[in-house]
Amino acid sequence: MTAMENFIGHTQLQEEYEVCISKGLVPYVRSSPGIGKSDSAKKFAAKHNLELIDIRLSQCTPEDLQGYPMREGDKAVFTPFNIFPLEGEPLPKGKNGWLLLLDELSSANKAVQAAAYKIILDRQVGSFNLHPNCGMIACGNLITDKAVVHKMSTALQSRLVHYQLQITVDEWTEWALEHNIDHRISAFVNFDNNMLMNFNPDHEDHTFACPRTWEFLNRTMNNITVDRSAHQPRICGTIGSGAGMEFISFCEVYNDLPKWDHIIDPKINEALTPPPEPTAKFAVISWIGAEVEKKDVENVLPYIQKFGGEFQMLFCRHILRRLPNMDRESEEFRKFSMKIISKANRL
Fold first, then answer.
1. Which of 136, 165, 194 marks a domain boundary?
2. Are residues 233 and 90 in the same domain?
3. In angstroms, how far apart are the furthest CA atoms of the chain?
4. Phi-psi bin for 34: left (phi > 0), alpha (psi -120 to 50), beta?
5. For the segment 164-203, what is each residue's pLDDT rounded down to a tens digit?
6. How do 68-72 and 75-79 pair as beta strands?
7. Are residue 95 and residue 135 in the same domain, yes or no?
8. Are 116 and 186 in the same domain?
9. Please, what are the averages of pLDDT over each run of 10 residues along the chain (347 residues)?
């Protein structure tokens, strides 16, 4: 198997979790930092109403996984910590079971990795069986990314089903829409796809752009008008200097866009002309696609039709992501979108 054959996106990964966990196997997900390994486990737990138990193996000792020796008569018995759901215990209140997330597996030292053998393969903590309603997922960073990573033994490798998570702009954009990520962030990432995951293990900056840090930045945006002098330290301190400066320049384009009231008024927008620069065109189309209400979609079509075909297609994609029934609810929009799709298919 080549390294590419086990690459997988977030959507398919959820399907693989279903298969592995239902068959008593442990999927192991590795990736560069910050693209949502832990979040994928949380999503699976929420979907199946499981209580998530997050264990950071890089912070564990072997005893944490094997149990501590306790004297019982003339013998020592390994007693597991109460974080592990064991056979015979009642289910958590209101839950269907547990999901045990063995996070940072590749960052655990050799002794801790060895202590995990029994949990992963035999589903045992010391001599105690895990609860049958407890599934497991393991995660770790790539050894090539210069994170704190220890090479995994072949004994541990063979106990896991291996996947390498990758992030695509389309998947992330869908996630961003569901989580109300600021439209300027989504637009910028779609304008320059390389900025979604701008990671180089040899970088000398303090941080880098990745899905995790974009989400951090989103928390601070709050529909603010980006001001270079006021916001540069925060933006660059969140996503790195290179990505930060480019994002600031991209946001400054919005300061010169047409007024919103003019864009949604068909009597006015017929006289408007698209901005000449590709960056500004991308910004205005993304802005309209992210903000326009259902009642005004038809009103903005005269203005959208003045843009090139690729920007019209971008507008349709934005609308159908946000308002998936728009092509059935608006005859004008349906005709417009079908015309654009037909042109694209002929190219």
1. 165
2. no
3. 92
4. left
5. 999 899 999 999 988 999 999 999 999 999 999 988 777 7
6. antiparallel
7. yes
8. no
9. 68 96 96 91 97 95 86 78 93 97 92 93 91 96 73 91 93 90 93 89 85 96 88 96 95 89 91 90 92 94 92 92 92 91 66
Q: Is 61 left (phi over 0), alpha (psi -120 to 50) or beta?
A: beta
Q: Write out the residue range of the structural domain in which residue 78 sits.
A: 3-165
Q: Quote the CA–CA distance of 244 and 226 in Å, as a whole number.
A: 11
Distance between CA atoms of 137 and 28, rounded to whole angstroms? 6
Render pLDDT for 291-310 as a digit per residue (tens, 0 to 9): 999 999 999 999 999 998 89
Model pLDDT, residue 2: 45
Instruction: At 268, give phi and psi (nearest 5°).
Output: -100, -40
**Model pTM?**
0.82
Q: 92 burial class (0-12, 13-18, 19+ CB within 10 angstroms)?
A: middle
Cα(149)–Cα(143) distance, integer angstroms? 6
Looking at the DSSP bridge assignments, the partners of residue 164 are 7, 30
